[in-house]
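Reviewer 2 asked us to include a model.

Predict the structure of this chain.
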Amino acid sequence: MKIVLTGANRGLGIHLARTALERGHTVLAGVRTVAEDAPINRLKKQYPDRVYTYFLDVTDENSIAKAAELVANDVSSIDGIINNAGVLTERGKAIEELDFDNVQFTMDVNVLGPMRVMKHFLPLLYNGKKQAIINISSEAGSIQNAYGGDFPYGISKAALNMFTVQLSSYVKDKDIAVYAVHPGWIKTDMGGENATGYPEDSANGILDILEGKIDITSELGFIDFTGKEMKI
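Predicted model (structure tokens):
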């Protein structure tokens, strides 16, 4: 598969990139840092024919449009998109303490970011094979399990889940699978060292879902990385 991956330079993203490459896929990596020593460039040296890097800031539509144009020139079509770029701000703050610049930034990255990516990359996906879209969500976006904390993050992921359902309906006649996937609480910069899961396991599960190896029964497409249905 030819896979567009945002936020590919760190955390879960770099593990997704590495796992995809180990499975023989081509990774079209959207990153904000393309420095020589960036993690994705180290993978590029290892897999020079199957890693492409593009400057892509999900809050900057012009950068997304330019990246899509470059991808079209490089590979002409894609088979999968993983909207992985995300932020967690204002962690643990009471609503009375929220900095709304950070709240708006969270919504811009976590919700509007994937929407911008889909706006510009869907035409390339239409020409692919056995296409699938995965939006990296979180159990924090479950309305039924709302816990009254991490306000911008939880609200943004709930909105992302809604976008996933909307998008799934929009591309239904093209037989494109669309999922919002909870990767688990994993040991990354965002998850922290106290997390109980490992990004390698999540990456393998997410790639299994993208490849269609797991039978998904969820009608709304909100699942964890093993394919189990999550509560909306």
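Strands lie at 2-6, 26-31, 51-55, 80-83, 132-136, 177-182, 222-224. The chain has one domain: 2-224. We have added this to the supplementary material.
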